[in-house]
Design a protein that fits this description.
Layout lengths: L1 H16 L12 H15 L2 H9 L2 H4 L5 H9 L1 H10 L7 H10 L7 H16 L9 H29 L1
Helix pairs in contact: 1-3, 2-3, 2-8, 3-6, 3-8, 5-6, 6-8, 7-9, 8-9
């Protein structure tokens, strides 16, 4: 129950923080965040991934200076840590950012595993066929990132299965 209260709090915070923002198609940006949260939850069954899905763009899009501290104060250090991993730092190329996400230790329910699941959901939503406004280059970059994250996820599943035997 507490997890779902956190999801509702994250939804309200995201709605307030991203008020007035539109996506590339002119729709409220909150719809992207809700979709990422829903897909993340569907992949993991974890309310924490839904919370991070709702908050994943806050630092980059709203408050790059104090955003992580705000999230830590409102949602706890684990949520802030996952959002930090999802935040592409200025000056870091996209390939290095994705490489860093793929190489992090992926233990169950750690900030890095939550961040990876949310990034997969984010990329799935960003590359959906109905979104015709992305360039071919951007689609290829996102597609490669999605493939790398999924490959890392499969390798983790295989090694986990081997350890259980």
């Amino acid at each position: 129950m507490i997890g779902w209260i956190r999801v509702v709090r994250a939804f309200c915070f995201a709605a307030w923080a991203h008020r007035g923002q539109k996506d590339m198609e002119g729709r409220p940006y909150l719809l992207h965040l809700v979709t990422v949260a829903w897909v993340s939850y569907g992949m993991t069954g974890s309310a924490e991934t839904a919370v991070v899905g709702l908050l994943h763009d806050y630092v980059e899009d709203v408050d790059p200076l104090y955003g992580l501290e705000t999230l830590r104060h409102k949602f706890g250090w684990q949520t802030a840590a996952a959002v930090k991993l999802l935040t592409k730092e200025r000056g870091v190329c996209y390939d290095r950012y994705i490489e860093r996400l793929c190489r992090m230790p992926q233990h169950a329910w750690t900030a890095s595993s939550v961040a990876s699941e949310v990034k997969i959901a984010d990329l799935l939503h960003n590359t959906r066929p109905a979104r015709g406004s992305l360039s071919e280059y951007k689609l290829l970059v996102y597609g490669r990132a999605l493939r790398e994250l999924l490959e890392a996820r499969v390798q983790l599943a295989v090694s986990s299965a081997a350890r259980r035997r």
